[in-house]
Amino acid sequence: MAEHEHVRVAVIGSGFGGLGAAVRLRREGVTDFVVLERADSVGGTWRDNSYPGCACDVPSHLYSFSFAPNPDWPRAFSGQEHIRAYLERVADVFGLRPHLRFGSEVKLMTWDPHELRWDIETGSGRLTADLVVSATGPLSDPKIPDIPGLDTFPGKVFHSARWDHDYDLKGKRVAMVGTGASAIQIVPAIQPRVGRLTLFQRTPPWVMPRMDRAISGAERWLHQRLPVTTQARRGLLWGIRELQVQAFTKHPGQLGFVEQLAKRNMARAIKDPALRAKLTPDYRIGCKRILLSSEYYPALARPNVDVVASGLAEVRGSTLVAADGSEAEADAIVFGTGFHVTDMPIAERVVGADGRTLAEVWKGGMEALRGASAAGFPNWMTIIGPNTGLGNSSMILMIESQLNYLADFIRQLDVLGGRVALDARPGAVGAWNRRVQERMKRTVWNTGGCTSWYLDGNGRNTTIWPGTTAEFRRATRRVDLMEYEVLRPPAAKAGGDAPESGKHSAAAGTEAAL
């Protein structure tokens, strides 16, 4: 990277969000941009998560860009290696390689109110940018709990997102900590190889069968020669999930039938009543993400697996002590304990117009206008921002909606002309967030009786979108300038070119958009 390089747009991250933003920029005629990536290849979470059994729980044809359909998906639910290969192809097909800057982890980015640009310090040099698109994603920084004595453990310790492929688990005593989406894939993948597997389960998940299968050669042939069939398949998958949304957002009681199906799924594999009791959740299905696996329960029933219905509380050498006092010996500990979602580390590295970091501004809870713009951080947008997550469908749908918003954001800057920046009005951000949180009150994520990673330290759900993907697409179709203050350089203001910030209240427009 050239010293003091200046670009129009700097994109942070090269997962689905970052690569999608790069493609959209090129389609909008913007070629003066870079994609800053801390690793040495693209892929984001699908590069980092390479643990045994890693796969997506959203059907392949829905978990891909609408502008880059893949008629050759090998399975109904794709594995990590296929998704990563897909993202590599996207980078090649859309000519993104010249824009990629690997080994360029963002250390600090600071808004310059005089120049109306971002000063960015990375692991490979410094640069400035008129606009920053933060696409680091919520599943990028692993979280390992602070366990007393963990530093005394003589064996191997790693997080599921930082899998040590050089360490051979064969015949080892392995402790799996956590029962989330990663753990239910890891457990059946490693169970046949390890000597003994101890699962530390703080909260049991609801698990439904995974209806996975190989996509036949005939189907792939048809999709290749008749692209409309790929679109139809995607549309059907999308439509089914849109119809499910009301049960999650307005009528959680309707999910009782799904709970019965999940219990039957468990009963087919778990014959021991005591084990079945350990594995049965006491909260409404959907409150935490519903997990998909046809191998998880059968693996737990195997004789070399122990389920400890308690979290890991202490480590004493090679002895692991659960919160209920039970003990287990281990040679290796694998943490499947999630990520920094509501306290994203990137927020500590973004310094806004008033000198505060985004983490300081978000101390009381993350919030951003239409999931994209934070007040006090001009010309800064985030992909997969606050309250844009989903509990039952494909995040690619939400990403593409935010890319529409990004495209119109750039168009508005072009129309305004000259050196200009848009800063979300605090009133608009507040109005949007109040409406989102009001809708959240009825959802299963808030009423289902669980504690999930969707909730922040204050108990607020700052992660999930409480509506359909179609609603979100409508809400992010265009940028409403009434929700932004238009900033001009100080010198321009002194010369009479007053900022076009206006005095309008954005609340009414924001409420209507929801």
UniProtKB/TrEMBL annotation:
The keyword Oxidoreductase applies. Pfam families: FMO-like. It comes from the Bacteria. GO terms for molecular function: flavin adenine dinucleotide binding; N,N-dimethylaniline monooxygenase activity; NADP binding. Keywords: FAD, Flavoprotein, Monooxygenase, NADP, Oxidoreductase. Residues 491-514 are annotated as: Disordered. Its cofactor is FAD. Catalyzes a Baeyer-Villiger oxidation reaction, i.e. the insertion of an oxygen atom into a carbon-carbon bond adjacent to a carbonyl, which converts ketones to esters or lactones using NADPH and/or NADH as an electron donor. Thus, can convert bicyclo[3.2.0]hept-2-en-6-one into the oxidative lactone products 2-oxabicyclo[3.3.0]oct-6-en-3-one and 3-oxabicyclo[3.3.0]oct-6-en-2-one. Is also able to catalyze the sulfoxidation of methyl phenyl sulfide (thioanisole). Belongs to the FAD-binding monooxygenase family. PANTHER family: FAD_NAD(P)-BINDING DOMAIN-CONTAINING PROTEIN-RELATED, L-ORNITHINE N(5)-MONOOXYGENASE-RELATED. This is Baeyer-Villiger monooxygenase. It comes from Streptomyces glaucescens.
